[in-house]
Amino acid sequence: MAPIVPSSGASLVSRAMALLLSLGVERALALPEICTQCPGSVQNLSNVALYCKQTPELMLQARCCLNQKGTILGLDLQNCSLEDPGPNFPQAYTAVIIDLQANPLKDNLANTFHGFIQLQTLVLPQDISCPGGNNAWKQVISYKDNKICQGQRNLCNSTGDPEMCPENGSCAVDGPGVLQCVCADGFHGYKCMHQGSFSLFMFFGILGSTTLSLSILLWGTQRRKAKTS
Fold it and tell me: What average pLDDT is seen over the chain?
C-alpha cells in the first residue's frame, strides 16, 4: 500500500491563494458596469471611502461601495473625464453617497437622478448646480473645487399645492426635486380616476379587435386594387 504523503504548508497556502483569487475574479465579474466604468479604485480619503469604512459590513470594489448583497451604497466617479454620468448610471439608484467632482460635466443633471430617492450626499464640480435646485437639498456647500449637495428634501411636504395630485393619488419623491403622483390601491389610469383593477383581458381584447379590423380593411383594399389592375 502506497504511503500517504501529507500536504506541505506551501501547497496549502498556494491552494488557498488560488481559491481566494478565483473568488475575487468571480466577484469582480459580478460587479455592476457602473462600478468599472472608470479605471482605478476609490481613493482612501475620498468621501465615498470614508462613508464605506464607517460600517464593517460594507466593502469597496472598484469605484463602488457595496453591501454584502452587492447593492451599491456609494459611487466614486471623480476625475473620470465624464461629460455626463453615462447610460449605466441608473444602476447606482440605491446609492446614499455619490462623488462626481473633477469631471467636465454639463450643467444639465435634472433628469439624471430620477429614482435616486436614497441619495443623501452628492459631490459635484463647483460650477454644476445641484439637481432639483438648492431647495431640493437641506444644505448646499460650495468650496473652491467642488460643491456638496447634502440631505435630500421631501418636497411633497412643502409644495403647498393641494391640486398637485388627484383625489385618489398621493405625492411621492422620485429623486432630488422630482415628484410623482401614485394612485391609491384600487385606482388607476389618467389622474387615478378609474376604480377597480386594470383589465388586461379587456385591453388586449380591444387591441386584438382593432388589429383584426385594420387587417381586414387592408386586405379588402389590396384585393380591390388587384381587380382594377
Answer: 83
